[in-house]
Amino acid sequence: MKIQLVTGEPGTGKTSKLHDLALQWAAQGLAFRAVLQPAVGPRTPGLGAPSYDLLMLELVPGGQLWSRRLEGLATRRPVRGYDFRSEAFEEARAFLTRQPLPACIILDEVGDTEVAGGGHGGALGDLLALDPPGLTLVLGVKASAVEAVRIRLAR
After folding, report:
1. Where are the domains of the chain?
2. Is residue 14 within 8 Å of 108, Cβ to Cβ?
3. Which is the CATH superfamily of the domain at 2-41+49-154?
4. What is the dihedral of CA 13, 19, 21, 25, to 10 degrees?
5. In sequence order, what are the residues at sequence separation of 6 or more whose Cβ sits closer than 8 angstroms to the Cβ of residue 74?
6. ∠ CA 105-41-94 to the nearest 5 degrees?
7. What is the rounded average pLDDT for all residues in the chain?
8. What does the angle CA 32 – CA 6 – CA 144 come to, to the nearest 5 degrees?
9. What is the pTM of this model?
10. Most exposed among 65, 139, 150, 155, judged by the fewest C-beta atoms under 10 Å?
11. Contact 141, 110 (CB under 8 A)
12. pLDDT, tens digit (0-9, with 9 covering 90-100), for 75-129
């Protein structure tokens, strides 16, 4: 398995870059699945956006781009952090690990919670355990979690 990281601080365009990559792969006819978390509303430095959606993309047989958007995946708490919809993460995990796996998978917003196996990070652990040959895994990683992700990937 080949693993690539797209890293940066909040609001630097990681999700946009990953979305663009998914659209490029779709245009090339490359089989992929992606789970992205686009921000909804204006971002506050150091806090992020007021909420995030979950966007699942897949190039399905016949070359059609399939998408499903789950709105309100995460909403910011009054103090700090977010409240998440766990059922959306479970759907994302099942989507990402469904067999047969595509050639490429994009997993956005990998942070400390996901490294520990929470959020949609359960899918990350599943994919690492499978270690499918020929899979390219592209991870959007928060700058604050890069070292933890590298340690996790070292297995």
Report:
1. 2-41+49-154
2. yes
3. P-loop containing nucleotide triphosphate hydrolases (3.40.50.300)
4. 180
5. 37, 51, 52, 82, 83, 84, 85
6. 25
7. 88
8. 130
9. 0.90
10. 155
11. yes
12. 777 666 677 778 888 898 899 999 999 999 999 988 888 888 877 778 888 898 8
